[in-house]
Design the sequence.
């Protein structure tokens, strides 16, 4: 791959900073960071871009997870099984990623995003306060199911993983948006680590670029997590709707051939 200019690195860092902030609040930072890497690294292979993106993302999710944990104190009886199942699901998804064409995912993801966005908009009370739908073993099994399904998706494809975790925790388990974001960050950290466990031994990570965007993503993740905690569930809900609408526009453009 050709040498990367300082300007390109600076622009990638700016994109990673923004992505880290968005990802820490509701997930979806990949919508910003991944396309930036595609444009900024035209000589890189797809697996190098995916692997480098994961390295940058794991830096942001590490600091945002730690910030949420200190300030929100999510229940380990939920987030530990969620993280373990998300990790395993992501590993499984990474191994089958090459067998599933991208074109098969986009129409399905678009429909899911429209349904998710409509559900949140039409139910303004959802996610305002925590009203758990299940208790005991049923609650844990529901969290584990969400971890496996969303984790598998992240390993196989990835964009919007954090947002899907947030919605699963709000819509399926009954958490408010702030608590859901805290647990989603922890689960997303696990899926990023799982992907790197596959990519690093393959030698796919571009470490010089990955560490630069990782530092920027880390700063964005820290600021985003602190902002979400300070502003509360209502802010996270509005931010969630904005990010989902952005996903619908971008993926919808791909589906109808406008991009």
Sequence:
């Amino acid at each position: 791959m050709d040498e990367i200019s300082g300007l390109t690195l600076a622009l990638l860092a700016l994109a990673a900073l923004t992505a880290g902030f968005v990802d820490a609040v509701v997930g979806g930072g990949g919508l910003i960071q991944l396309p930036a890497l595609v444009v900024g690294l035209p000589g890189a292979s797809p697996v190098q871009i995916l692997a480098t993106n994961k390295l940058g993302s794991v830096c942001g999710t590490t600091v945002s997870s730690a910030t949420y944990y200190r300030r929100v104190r999510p229940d380990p009886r939920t987030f530990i099984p969620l993280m373990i199942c998300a990790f395993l699901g992501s590993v499984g998804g990474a191994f089958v990623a090459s067998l599933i064409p991208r074109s098969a995912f986009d129409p399905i993801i678009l429909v899911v995003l429209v349904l998710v966005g409509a559900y949140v908009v039409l139910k303004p009370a959802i996610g305002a306060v925590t009203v758990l739908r299940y208790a005991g073993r049923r609650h844990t099994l529901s969290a584990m199911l969400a971890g496996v399904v969303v984790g598998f998706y992240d390993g196989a494809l990835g964009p919007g993983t954090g947002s899907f975790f947030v919605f699963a925790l709000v819509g399926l388990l009954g958490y408010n948006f702030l608590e859901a974001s805290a647990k989603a960050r922890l689960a997303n950290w696990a899926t990023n680590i799982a992907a790197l466990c596959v990519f690093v031994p393959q030698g796919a990570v571009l470490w010089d670029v990955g560490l630069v965007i990782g530092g920027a993503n880390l700063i964005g993740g820290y600021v985003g997590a602190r902002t979400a905690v300070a502003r509360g569930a209502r802010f996270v809900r509005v931010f969630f709707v904005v990010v989902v609408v952005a996903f619908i526009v971008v993926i919808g453009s791909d589906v109808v051939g406008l991009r």
In short: The chain has a mean pLDDT of 88. Residues 6-255 form one domain. The CA atoms of residues 19 and 32 lie 6 Å apart.
